[in-house]
Structure prediction request, 520 residues.
Amino acid sequence: MNTTPFLCIFDTTLRDGEQSPGASMNCAEKLAIAHMLEKLRVDVIEAGFAASSADDCASIKAVAEQITDSRVCSLARALPADIDRAAQVLAPAIERGNARIHTFIATSPVHMERKLQMSPETVLERAVAAVRRARSLCDDVEFSCEDASRSERDFLCRIIEAAIEAGATTINLPDTVGYAEPAEFGALVGDLLAAVPNAQRAVFSVHCHNDLGLAVANSLAALGAGARQVECTINGIGERAGNASLEEVVMAVATRSDRFAFQSRIEQRHLVPISRLVSETTGFYVQPNKAIVGRNAFAHEAGIHQDGVIKHRSTYEIMEAEAVGWFSNQLVLGKHSGRAALRRRLEDLGLCCEEQQFNDVFARFKELAAHQHEVFDEDLPALIGVLSQEGELGSALYSLSSLSYHSQPDGGARAEVVVQIDGEERRAEGSGTGPVDAAFSALAMVTDSAASLLHYSLNAAPHGSAAARGRAAVRLAHNGHTANGTGTDADVVTASARAWLDAQCRLGRAARRHPQLDAI
Prediction:
């Protein structure tokens, strides 16, 4: 009989990850990521916060309808209306038996006094009532003590014991503001497991933020102290400095099995593909030196390192690149490649689409292959992204029909754009310090946008091909809302214009969303 403890991976990319400013995703994008998370075999997918918006309700319901191998979860404040809404959208998964309601309330003195304006006794009563209501609607209930790392131990013991007695099957201890350090956070988990009388009736979980860069370290310390679930996100995205990075937690446990002896369902070879999918969807590009999924994670330039790796990989590599999805497919995609090869690679990357949509993607693929000879993995999400921006797969309001630009003798530039807005062509000219600035000016005029540009970046393809597509990222802000957009094209100014339009579309959607209040 295998007695190795099981490690539950709880992914909150679609909920906490989406709370990254500018990272909002539409229903189709969330569903694509959810399918890839299921392929990765995460145990729980937190698909959203049902009470936050109609968009989140629709997305959670769609995920609950289609995902069967992972549990589908919705966040809910310790309020009857929140819990009922979560149960309503999770209904398909509840019926199948793969749903979870995740309810929470703050437990630290500063949160109870300043934010909730409740006494500890009222908070405890509210928590118990919420867990009981959730358990009456769903067999799997998680309860979180928001800001647990700054909460008083005695009160945590009382509220956790009461929540388990009320029916909570998982107890989550969030380091909500990334304040803890590994030794004290591990001690917190260990002390609570020892002190709470009914602790063995629930799985203890941790949800660590990265404000001090310690989210993964704190999560691992908690595992060493007895926690059996880690809440994390792809690429570590999330509120402020982000969350514990799923790929780093998973590979730390797998690589250091001498220190972390756990069973896990995770299919590691999908880590790089899903990292790319999330990056392309949110516009949050992965830094080159990011552990596991950064493009330099397995790169060696120093002569000493190269010599060592050539002689024996283990000299400078503690894991195999192929194990996490690097260079995992040797199919070369080019102008002679057929539909089967393209479809297979799209599926490997989690980029699935309907037959008619695939026809459009295949036509784009052929155009690109004729232009740059070889099409790389990085290009494929971009091809689908182009279609989404043009309204063929997504819900974009704008379509870039044409863009022309030229530099002026005084050093400035002018640009002219033609944009289809709800099927009507509109034209505008703009000027700026360079072609990209001029294009943005023209786009703001043609869309009547007052948004401010917060961020702009341009990424070249990593393969050194001069003909490869450029990938631009833009972040816009207006009236307290922010949104990221991405764009791709062989012409970098056109790629930048597409990114600006994509951000403007997302900004419009973000303005229609309700804020996700009090999320852990």
